[in-house]
Amino acid sequence: MPANMKDRLIVGLDVPTLKEAAKAVRELDGVVSFYKIGYQLAFAGGLDFARELASGGTKIFLDMKLLDIDNTVAKGVENIVKMGMTMLTLHAYPKTMRAAVEAARGSDLCLLGVTVLTSMDEQDVIDAGYEYDPHTLVLRRSEQALHAGMGGIVCSAGEAAAVRRIVGPDMAVVTPGIRPSGSDHGDQKRVMTPADAIRNGSSHLVVGRPIVGAADRREAAQAILDEMRSA
Questions:
Q1: Catalytic residues, which ones?
Q2: Exposed, middle or buried by CB within 10 Å (0-12, 13-18, 19+), for 6?
Q3: Alpha helices in the chain (DSSP H)
Q4: What does pTM read for this prediction?
Q5: Helix, strand or coil, per DSSP, at residue 200
Q6: Which letter does DSSP use for residue 29 in this model?
Q7: Residue pLDDT, tens place only, 151-196
Q8: 134 — pLDDT class (breaks 50, 70, 90)
């Protein structure tokens, strides 16, 4: 687990254009060193932007949530390794995870298994056809990720302590759905404050709208780092 809180805060560049993403990175320079790039930006030229940032030493969490047949996942992971990414998400299906781990073997890419999306509650999981409640499903997939040799888990901060007990001290436990005290939850249903998430065993916090949507992004990021350090 990184000792420096700056290395544990991942800012989600959930913006529609490269221009807006580049502006956010400029404004956060010196405060933030780790960014998440997901679907929205990826499909607006964000993959080349990710390569560019990574080549300059910035850490990039590529949030692609891969899920496909084994060979397709493996070939995708092989090329993502060449991009110099720090973290990559895939859905925590055992076969998918094993294929990705084999494809990334020998590289520094940290593969993260997505357990249950933080926008989903128990009814959502039932509607998706699972027989488990969200907490049980998260723990089951965390155990499977450990056995597959994954680098970490993505789960809600409320599940981080239980996941940490399963995966031990070395695997990453990455938690989205982080909201500073008093902020709007948006479409997230399982949320936690930065300090509580750190205390609960999270290794990395993913924060998007509370920073990127703030009037003063730099101040918002610094405030969250201060909250994390108070844990």
A1: 65
A2: middle
A3: 18-28, 39-41, 47-55, 70-83, 94-104, 122-127, 134-148, 157-167, 194-199, 209-212, 217-229
A4: 0.93
A5: coil
A6: B
A7: 999 998 889 999 999 999 999 999 998 988 665 545 545 568 999 9
A8: confident
CA 37: distance to chain centroid? Answer: 10
Enclosing H/E stretch for 62: strand 59-66
Buried b (16+ CB within 10 A) or exposed e, 96-129: bbbbbbebbeeeebbbbbbbbbbebeeeebeeee
C-beta of residue 222 within 8 angstroms of C-beta of residue 30: no
pLDDT digits (tens, 9 = 90+) for 184-215: 545 545 568 999 999 999 999 999 999 999 99
Residue 55's CB: how many other CB atoms inside 10 A? Answer: 10
Residue 129 φ then ψ, to 5°: 95, 10
Name residue 15's amino acid: V
Tokens 């993913």 belong to residue: 206
